[in-house]
Amino acid sequence: MSDTRRRVKVYTLNEDRQWDDRGTGHVSSTFVERLKGISLLVRAESDGSLLLESKISPNTAYQKQQDTLIVWSEADNYDLALSFQEKAGCDEIWEKICQVQGKDPALDITQDPIDESEEDHFEEIPETTHLVELPPCELARLEEIADLVTSVLSSPIRREKLALALMSEGYIKKLLGLFRVCEDLDNREGLHHLYEIVRGVLFLNKAALFEVMFSDDCIMDVVGCLEYDPALVQPKRHREFLTKTAKFKEVIPITDSELRQKIHQTYRVQYIQDIILPTPSVFEENFLSTLTSFIFFNKVEIVSMLQEDEKFLTEVFAQLTDEATEESKRRELVNFVKEFCAFSQTLQPQNRDAFYKTLANLGILPALEIVMGMDDLQVRAAAIDIFSYLVEFSPSMVREFVMQEPQQTEDDVLLINVVIKQMICDSDPELGGAVQLMGLLRTLIDPENMLASTNKTEKTEFLSFFYKYCMHVLTAPLLANTAHDKNSKDHPEGSAKINPVCPDNFQTAQLLALILELLTFCVEHHTYHIKTYIMNKDLLRRVLVLMNSKHTFLALCALRFMRRIIGLKDEYYNRYIIKGNLFEPVINALLDNGTRYNLLNSAIIELFEFIKVEDIKSLIAHIVDNFYKALESIEYVQTFKGLKGRYEQEKDRQSQKLNRYRRDARSMDEDEELWFNDDDDDEDGEAVERRMDEDFSDSYEKFMEAKKGAANGANGANNGKSAAIPPASPAITSSNSSSSSVKTVALPATPVVKTALVGLVDYPDDEDEEEEDEEEEEQSPRKRPRLSS
Known about the structure:
The protein is α+β, with helices and mostly antiparallel strands. 62% of the residues lie in helices and 7% in strands. It contains 36 helices and seven strands.
């Protein structure tokens, strides 16, 4: 369908009383067999799928608002709205709804919700179809009018009738005329009545009345009426603020008069809701729901109209990045873009996606890179807010731009480095901007929100980029403030413990704490990249210099960094810590803290407790070997005694293993000596092999005679020789080259080698030892299965 009259957006009201956009399509009213009635159908303009199928029920209350909206409820908590592109389309569907329900299309609501109490007394209300009769709009009747408006608020039916009466007689404009008269006469009583009347009319919650009250002709008088709250001694000066203090600044002239009027109207209505009207009570919170919707749809319309005006936005970004632009003008431009992004938060996800893509195409990120580097604090603050909107919406979009920068620009200025420098150079004593930027950096380097596709891995590419181009900028203040002092030799021995360059400035300490928080995050979430960086820069040693800081929070940040590293239980890190003796500053801090039971004391003890509980053997051995004497006096916790206990247990275990190994090795050595005694003298390998064959035959014949008898012994010996020699030949071959290599091969299977080789070589001078070995074999039955195997 190409008919724009029927083009609509479908909205549903969520639990937070915010409108969710369900899509754009074309609406029609058709008889649906399944629903057995005329229904509203909305088919998506993108793929023709069904966005809405709603039967026009005779009892459903439909409301027409702002000429292009139809709103209704299908269930207790399910509100729907159709927002038409054109008024003609809205009127057409409204007439169809009224035709089905048998109502007058001139009305803006088709049904009245009736309370049970009203239903019971329905017969008592004569001629309910008639409008409420309003008193004449005169000064003398203001109190009567105020009482009437206040009295109808509890009844939905009477609210509707009063709204129709107010609309039909042009009553609102007459009331506002009386306001001007009362103000000229300084008639406070009349002004107080007008406050009650206007407030009550707002609580009628009718879009048609809002259209009149918030028009250019009436809105300032409405604000004027709301200044005279009877509860106040002196009236507020809201009109003075709106006309003199609040200035509308057109950074680029807006040629569309409708757009300009919408912006003015939205600002003033938002002011009425947020500033003038009191916070509604629990019973009144639904009274202004239509006002909230009015503002919401106005904002959506403003963003859409600005977004479609490409010339306007192109001019904004051109002037923003132009060096010739005056500072005051640039400040206004940045504030406009910030406000524009804030308005976009009212958009639904798919519309917000299109909005930020439009900004990206127009060059928002290169513009921010220029603006963030400027001296004007207000401009920088606004630029940071815009950047936060972009990062929160799509970190991937920002990362993609950042990674393309080195190829596209010749200078070394990168957006992410500009952000880091802004964080480092924040002039705010409380570092409010730095904290915000640190959070954005963390979002950008968080692997959890990085996409991995088949063609490329964003995580790998971006982290490689970050550690190559940006990490040195981030750590520069940390390395500068923990550098070794060149004059440390001049300091007396007692003061060597306190590093003179350790920052005492509170603001610097806060900044270093933020950097450490980011680095700790990197240790947790980046494995290879941060590990390589820490090793290359010896970063942990530099961080632990901060254990001497007088600012305990900074010492705790340094300790937390080390705790995260040890928490990974990575032996690569453990060897680095041991080699650099990096527990020394931690233990010095513990000893310097003395007997004070504070957070630093507890955090250090928890570090050692973790090492003990997780039984990290290399660190336990290092700590006990090097520091136990200094720590053994600490008895108020059992942590260090426990470490010593773990150390002793491991030492005993290793000792037992060593003894067992030595025993096995000793029993093997006796037999190896038999084998290798004359090995060096036996240079003729063939003689050795021949002697082995003969000896094996004799042994095998004896074995077979005992088992089968002498008759089959010769054949068995021949077969046995061919089967047994191949396994033995590798050992013999290697023995010709090196006796030590044979020992190495034989070690793992010591018992088997020992028993197998006893009968293979017959040394004439070792007959006694051979007999002893045979006796041992008879006494050790468990060796026999291993021989047969």
